[in-house]
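Budget justification aside, the reviewers requested a transparent look at the raw inputs and outputs of the sequence design task funded under Objective 1. We therefore reproduce one unedited record. The lines immediately below are the structure tokens for a 383-residue chain.
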């Protein structure tokens, strides 16, 4: 099997590598590589740099900033971005609501929202999951009732990632309580400064503030903010979730983190058991990279290759395994996540435990790994 890149694709890879390592702020890239938390301004600056170069939303329709690249080139673009420590375009904008609007929204809504979405002039939040409607998303209970020209929204959303930065939230709401649960759902775009909308932080096990609850109490939403047709929300949700899984095998990120772990190990690499552990991870990562290239090269018509479930499953397992390796390398110093800047301990040891804990989520989002195993068994193995 020939997996070598063509001369044109290899030149494309080098073009992406040069751009990401020379045109994006080195301070931002170093923050990512060191495992520190990025603030809102860093995300915005990076995405605007990418957008100005036509590299923020290459998978969108070309009239809205897309590049018409092959799936292979999109893979190379993402891998080089990750390897360079460049924050990817905000997924809520680039991979979620942007493609939904391009596919389902009116021309007026596209013109209003797509350019600022690509440029991160609007920071979007995702309003899907609810306390009793996570894996069973169709069981959502947030309601939208028509009142004149407006919708009045009441309910709660949870696990809203980076919602503390949000300007607008794309929200699944129940607009027909009598319909079968999937059939009675619509999508609304809601200004997060609207009266009655409240964002409440959820503190995570790693001590960070990454996710939130969003509460709606008689929030009035203009009727023009309905995406597509009434009760078409489930169709859009399925479309969006398919786009969410773009880049589920973070090859570039895992390669960068594993190489860094080897540097941090220093003399510990003299331990033959540790060397064997690292070698096994490198072999599995090489297999993942080759599989990702093969999947990208054989995807067609925008439809995900069935093996994308393998990429999601193995990619997230390797993310977690490398974070566990770094935590083990830190040893007892890994418990010092709250030590602060005045500590004598190396900075990386203070980030080891929070990174390990945070990445427990990787095997759940984008479709849990248990679900991916079912998809593999059904569509690939024919079981």
């Amino acid at each position: 099997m020939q997996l070598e890149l063509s001369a044109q694709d290899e030149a494309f890879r080098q073009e992406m590598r040069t751009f990401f390592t020379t045109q994006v702020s080195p301070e931002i890239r170093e923050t990512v590589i060191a495992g520190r938390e990025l603030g809102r301004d860093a995300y915005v600056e990076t995405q605007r740099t990418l957008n100005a170069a036509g590299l923020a939303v290459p998978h969108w329709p070309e009239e809205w900033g897309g590049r018409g690249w092959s799936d292979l080139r999109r893979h190379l673009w993402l891998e080089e971005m990750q390897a360079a420590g460049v924050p990817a375009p905000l997924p809520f904008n680039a991979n979620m609501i942007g493609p939904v609007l391009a596919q389902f929204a009116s021309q007026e809504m596209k013109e209003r929202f797509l350019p600022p979405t690509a440029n991160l002039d609007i920071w979007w939040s995702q309003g899907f999951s609810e306390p009793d409607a996570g894996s069973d998303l169709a069981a959502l209970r947030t309601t939208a009732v028509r009142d004149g020209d407006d919708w009045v929204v009441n309910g709660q959303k949870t696990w809203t990632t980076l919602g503390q930065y949000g300007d607008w939230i794309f929200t699944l709401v129940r607009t027909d309580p009598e319909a079968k649960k999937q059939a009675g759902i619509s999508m609304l775009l809601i200004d997060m400064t609207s009266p009655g909308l409240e964002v409440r932080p959820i503190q995570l096990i790693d001590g960070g503030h990454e996710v939130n609850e969003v509460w709606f109490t008689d929030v009035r939403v203009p009727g023009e903010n309905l995406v597509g047709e009434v009760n078409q929300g489930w169709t859009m949700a399925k479309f969006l979730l398919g786009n969410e899984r773009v880049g589920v095998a973070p090859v570039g990120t895992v390669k960068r983190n594993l190489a860094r772990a080897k540097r941090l190990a220093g003399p510990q690499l003299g331990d033959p058991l540790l060397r064997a552990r690292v070698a096994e991870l490198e072999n599995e990562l090489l297999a993942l990279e080759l599989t990702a290239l093969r999947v990208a090269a054989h995807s067609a018509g925008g439809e995900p290759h069935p093996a994308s479930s393998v990429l999601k499953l193995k990619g997230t397992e390797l993310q977690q395994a490398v974070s566990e390796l770094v935590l083990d390398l830190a040893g007892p110093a890994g418990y010092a996540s709250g030590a602060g800047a005045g500590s004598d301990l190396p900075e990386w040891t203070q980030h080891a435990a929070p990174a390990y804990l945070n990445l427990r989520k990787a095997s759940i989002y984008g479709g849990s790994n248990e679900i991916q195993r079912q998809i593999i068994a059904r569509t690939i193995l024919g079981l």
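The chain has twelve helices and seven strands. The chain has three domains: 7-89, 124-231, 245-380. Computational costs for records of this kind are itemized in the attached budget.
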